[in-house]
Each structure stands twice: as C-alpha cells, then as structure tokens.
C-alpha cells in the first residue's frame, strides 16, 4: 500500500476540504471542480518540469546506486586482505570497551557499509522507477527494475562475507605473523581476483553490456582451489597437534601375556607450529589476554597459554574459510546479473580491435586501392 498512501491522503484531505467548504457555502460541485482543477494544474506543472525542463529519474538513480556499490565492496575486500596480511592493528578507543569498532573514516568499513545500507534506498527508488515512462537507455516497456534490486541483494550477500573478514581484523585474538606469511600468496591472489570480478561486474552494469566472457569466475575459482590445497598441506599450522587424541593401532593377532590384544600407540606428529606467539600491545588492557603477555610471571607453556595459541591459529583458518565462502557467493551474483542482462536486453560487448583478425588484401584489392 505504500505507493497509494500519498494518493489516499490527498483524496482524504480534498474530501474534508470540499465537505467543510460546501457546508458553509452550499456549493459542493463548484468547490470540488475548483479543487480538482488545482490538483490537475499542480500535476501538470510538476510533470512538465520533471520531464521537460529538469528531469529527475528515480530509475537512473537506482542504476547508478547499484553500479557504484560494486567498487565499494571490491575496495573493502582488497583492504581486508591487505590489512590482514600486513598485520594491521586498530587502536583501542576508550569509549568502546568491549570490541574494536570500525570508525566512519575507515575506508574498509565505508566501502561495504554503503552496499549493506543500500537496501532501503533501493526499495524506495524501485517504487518510483516502476511508474516512470520509458526514457533514455531504458526504452523498454515493463523494464525489469526488480532485477536491479535482486542484483543489489546478491551483492549485499557477498558484502556480509567482507564484513566478517573485517571482523577478523578487529578481533581480539589474532594469528601470529609467521603463520600468515605461509598463506600470504594464496590469500592475496584470492582477494585480488575477487575484487577484479566485482569491478568487472560493476563496469558491465554501468555500461549496460553483457559479460565478455562466460567464465568470469574461472580465475577466482582457481585461486580459491589453490588456497584450499595450501590449507590442506599446512593444516598442522591451524591446530594444536599436542592435544591430538591418540588412537590405538592393533598389531595383528598377537596376544600379550595377560591374554589381551597387543596395541601400539601412534606417536603424535611433530609439532611444527610456529613457536612464537604474536601478542599485540593493545592486549594488555584485556584482563583475559593480558595473562598471556610475556611479562606475566605465568609459565609460558601453561594450559591457558596453549589454549590461546590454539585459538590464535584457528583465527587464521577462520579468515581463510570466510574468503573461500566469499568466492562461493560470487556465483549467485553472476547469475543475478546474467538474468538482468537477458531481461533488460543489454548490448553485446564490443570486441577490441586488437583481437579482430584481418586477412591481408588480395592482388585485385591492392590494384583497386592504387588507382583509387
């Protein structure tokens, strides 16, 4: 009922105005006609100005808003990956005691925030766009404006993963820099390829062209697979192998002296995890994390210290898994864009001149060119 709320309000006010005026003058018909003419005059002036003199189209604003949010999410994704690999730390603000909260001037936060908060604005612009006549590049009757909001929703679904990645940077427990360097190349490549896909999609939405390649996700999928392989190879860095449960291994049918089956116990694998713990200076203000400070008289290899060591290693696994989850969500975004491009009849991409193969001219063509 939102599109009809304003019309009902005008009708109700007009009815009250005509009723009160007609009661005093006794001329209901003349009052109603004059009121109707004033409304028609105002509508004609508004339409003339908005269409002919200074057009303001909600459809154009919706198109620009959706296309702009792609670059913001791409910038935030690159900022999250680069900040995590460089061990970027946020200073604790005294007024924000419990968590590290992002500030408004943080470029990583402001990038995905616009995409997350654009839902209400997109719905409002959609309500006006569906009533507008065909204009500009949108000359198609019943233009699929709802698909624009569908693309925006798929982009927000991806931006939630970027928000979670930013939360890993703001978390209290951080992975040591030595562990991050092991996965540095793979994490960086996934971030770069993911941002490249977002920027390419944003450019195609802006120019209203179809995808130049059907395999737009091939590179980012390959990068994510390489990251997953590296995680499988270096999984011992993400867990505490000292606490692995020892599983007995039966040694055939040999019997012990007391009649019980003989069993050999596997030795836990050598702990190759990084021994150095990365303790931020800002952790000193945390009553829990301050117990693991090097200046604390507690034994370094205490149970609580090993617990924190395991949690810090798992934080790296969390960041990597969230990055892979972001790559998985890109497929929904590509599907939503392809549906929009088909329904809106986006133009085909222009082939670059360098890629167009031209055959050398024949003898007759050369003679014709010579004599003009």
Number of helices: 11
What's the structural domain tally?
A: 2
* CATH-level-4 superfamily name of the largest domain: Phosphate transport system protein phou homolog 2, domain 2
Report the principal-axis shape.
elongated
Secondary-structure-derived class: mainly alpha
CATH architecture of the largest domain: Up-down Bundle
Strand content: under 5%
Helix content: 55-70%
Q: Report low-confidence residues grouped into runs of 5 or more.
A: 92-100, 251-300, 354-359
Strand order of the largest sheet: 1-2
- What summary fits the major beta sheet? 2 strands, antiparallel
CATH class of the largest domain: Mainly Alpha
Mean pLDDT: 76
| Structural Rg | 32 Å
> What is the third-level CATH name, the topology of the largest domain?
Methane Monooxygenase Hydroxylase, Chain G, domain 1
- Quaternary state of this entry equals single chain
Element string (H = helix, E = strand): HHHHHHHHHEEHH
Keywords, please?
single chain; 372 residues; mainly alpha; Methane Monooxygenase Hydroxylase, Chain G, domain 1; 2 domains; two-stranded antiparallel sheet; 11 helices; 2 strands; 60% helix; elongated; ion channel; ALMT; ion transport; Aluminum-activated malate transporter
In short:
With 372 residues, the protein is mainly alpha-helical.
């Amino acid at each position: 009922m939102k599109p009809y709320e304003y019309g009902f309000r005008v009708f109700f006010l007009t009815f009250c105005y005509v009723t009160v005026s007609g009661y005093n003058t006794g001329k209901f018909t003349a009052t109603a006609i004059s009121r109707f003419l004033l409304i028609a005059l105002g509508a004609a002036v508004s339409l003339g100005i908005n269409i002919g003199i200074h057009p303001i189209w909600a459809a154009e604003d919706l198109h620009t808003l959706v296309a702009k949010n792609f670059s913001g999410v791409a910038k935030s994704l690159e900022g999250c990956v680069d900040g995590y690999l460089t061990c970027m730390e946020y200073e604790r603000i005294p007024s924000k005691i419990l968590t590290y909260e992002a500030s408004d001037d943080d470029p990583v936060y402001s990038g995905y925030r616009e995409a997350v908060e654009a839902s209400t604005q997109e719905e409002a612009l959609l309500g006006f766009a569906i009533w507008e006549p065909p204009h500009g590049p949108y000359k198609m009757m019943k233009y699929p404006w709802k698909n624009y909001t569908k693309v925006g929703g798929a982009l927000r679904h991806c931006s939630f993963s970027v928000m979670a990645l930013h939360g890993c940077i703001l978390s209290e427990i951080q992975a040591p820099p030595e562990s991050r360097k092991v996965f540095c190349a793979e994490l960086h490549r996934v971030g770069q390829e993911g941002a490249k896909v977002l920027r390419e999609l944003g450019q195609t939405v802006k120019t209203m062209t179809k995808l130049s390649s059907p395999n737009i996700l091939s590179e980012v999928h390959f990068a994510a697979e390489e990251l997953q392989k590296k995680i499988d190879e270096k999984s011992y860095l993400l867990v505490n192998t000292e606490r692995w449960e020892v599983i007995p291994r039966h040694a055939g049918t040999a019997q012990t002296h007391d009649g019980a089956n003989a069993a050999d116990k596997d030795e836990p694998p050598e702990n190759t995890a990084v021994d150095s713990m990365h303790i931020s200076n800002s952790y000193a203000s945390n009553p829990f994390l301050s117990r693991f400070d090097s200046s604390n008289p507690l034994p370094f290899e205490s149970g609580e210290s090993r617990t924190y060591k395991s949690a810090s290693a798992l934080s790296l696994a969390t960041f990597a898994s969230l990055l892979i989850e972001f790559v998985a969500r890109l497929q929904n975004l590509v599907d939503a864009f392809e549906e929009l491009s088909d329904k809106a009849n986006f133009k085909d991409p222009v082939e670059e001149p360098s890629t167009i193969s031209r055959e050398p001219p024949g003898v007759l063509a050369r003679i014709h060119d010579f004599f003009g």
